[in-house]
User: What shape does this take?
Amino acid sequence: MDNFELEIKTAFLEEATQLLADAEQCFLNLEVSRGDPSILDQIFRLAHNLKGSAKAVGFDELSDLTHHLESLMLEIKNKKLLIDPHTIDLLLRCNDHIRMMIAELKLDLRAHFDSNFLLSEIEELMKSSVRETPNDFALNVNTLVDKARVVQALDIKNQKHAPTTASEDSIRVSFLRVEKLLNLVGEMVILQTLLKEQAFQEEMPHFRRGMDQLGKVTKEVQNISMSLRMIPLKQAFLKMQRIIRDTAKTLEKKVNLEMRGEDTEVDKTLFERLSDPLIHLVRNAVDHGIESPETRIKAGKPEMGTIILSAAHHTGYLHIEIRDDGCGLDTARLQKIAIERGILKSGTILNDREAQRLIFASGFSTKTEVTDISGRGVGMDVVKANIEQLQGEIQIESVIGKGSCFRLILPLTLAIIDGLLVRCSSQRYVIPLTQILESVQIGSHNVKFATGLGEILLLRGENIPLYSLSSLLQLPNDKKIKKDNEGVAVVIKTQKKSFALRVDEIIGQQQVVIKALGKELKNVKGFSGSAILGDGCPTLILEPQEIVQKYNTQSIATEAERMVS
Amino acid sequence: MSDIQNSQKNEQTRYLRFSLGAEEYAIPLLNVKEVIARTQTTPVPHTPSYFLGLMNLRGQIISVIDLGKKLGIKPRESFETVFIICELGEISLGVMVDSVNSVLTPDQSQISTKPDVETGIHPDFITGIYHKDSKLVLFLDVVKALSVEDQLTAQKAV
Assistant: This one.
């Protein structure tokens, strides 16, 4: 395969992914709108585009399937076929299959697929439609006429297509290029700061005024380039629509989804990692939240349950809410189950808020039976961990019988973190502020040494293990540092036991832009990335728990002993 | 396919010639993104000794390798060290060498294959030898010579 072929194939796969996302949305809308002709037109166009491009770049199996799909769409368009849930289901399954094909092709351009089961289903469906129309000839004419119209439509597709996919003119840019731009902008800011300091020492008014202007422009450029990483949540929300539909169908519930603030923008990296927790919460809302239609009617609620997905920015944070009008969390029942499962000691009295948070305990499940959808008791603890990994938190509001609301509060970007800049030997490191509980000056009164245990930090009656960062990282010993009574202990927040790291000095608190380490360093543990400090020097961002787990082994201790003796 | 076969197809392959200690080496110019004067690097703990550290190349963080140390070449007393920034597929790497000398456009006939030497070191990374003014210039396969991922993986396994 030559380069050109490779390039067009890759480009096609990118395009196809977008087309499929659009198509899925259309199918779902089709079900709600019961065959709005404009949506049908759009799907038809999408299928046609996909078929044409697939054929052009030589993915014949793909073009074959889309060809059949196109014919099926034509039948629907000509009202030869009713839009019933069965048809929509088949369409969605075809969409899934094509998506799978695209995903496979991305990995291996020579992949082959078996689509016969879908093809035969499509054929069957088409046959049934033919039987319904007694006049075969009429059908053909209709088809011909419509083809002509379609060709016409395709001719003007360039003008027509644009407004349906994006409301603004846009271009597709690779994330790598955006990253490069951000790197350079970061560097520009550093240089600009350096120059600005110079400008204050110079007696040149024009230079100083110029520098002031440059400062403003730089700030603007920085803001704009940061915003390039942001993408609207819409795509994630649309995915939820599909999941709600499928889950509700399996459980024979009726659920309506409302979306609010889907244009809210989030950082791309955050966006990618939000998807799993969101899926889980939405599934739970359908499974545990919304009641069956009968129960709802008995309770005097409308038969159709409602789930509201909303997103908004609040004071530097992103809030995402998953709200349902279902049965709410039964705190008494939660406590009972927690006691049965040994998560809670019997006799413990919790307030409603604490009881609601029981669902985050690992191994907790209110379901007695394991289903496809939920009940295995793994889940909410994972969701919570995922969200915490993103430096966010989950809040629950729930009123029994009225419904629940899960609110995710997340930082707007993962690209910038607040960090504590520390010095250890001659090196500087950044510790993420979210992982730090507090820091204390070390003295002989609060640090004791015990052979076999190592150094212990006494903090308000607690005994916290104290590890020396410089020996964990095997930094060359700084001779000036006296043994016990100097340095600062940084207490690290963990899920289990807390511990402290001994550093030489705290330089200050600082916001840093996280930069990933190169692939050549992927096996070096203990660092979550690097950052460039104000003076242009690179520094490492520490992952304290990993460092202690990885490097605080017996072997290192003995090695240190050998070195001392 | 080795670099020699590659360059036979394209006779105009150009190489960047540089010094390490008293020896001279060359790497394909296509791998070279730029050459800069030595700048400050930040060491990364728990990496091999030839891993010099991280540098800031206009906002991009790049790992720098001390090639002399990696190949076990005796260092020469010199203050003039430079970083050659190499692009190896997805990875950008800085390579510290003593000095950069010139760009070579050797004629294929001037390149001889390496002699079979029985040594403990595996000289896989040497792809050919070129004689220039009674000096030897060894052509390096950069990816093999640095074998960065292998080395760091091995480090982890220890």
Observations:
- The domain at 416-564 of chain A is CATH 2.30.30.40 (SH3 type barrels.).
- The longest helix of chain A spans residues 3-33.
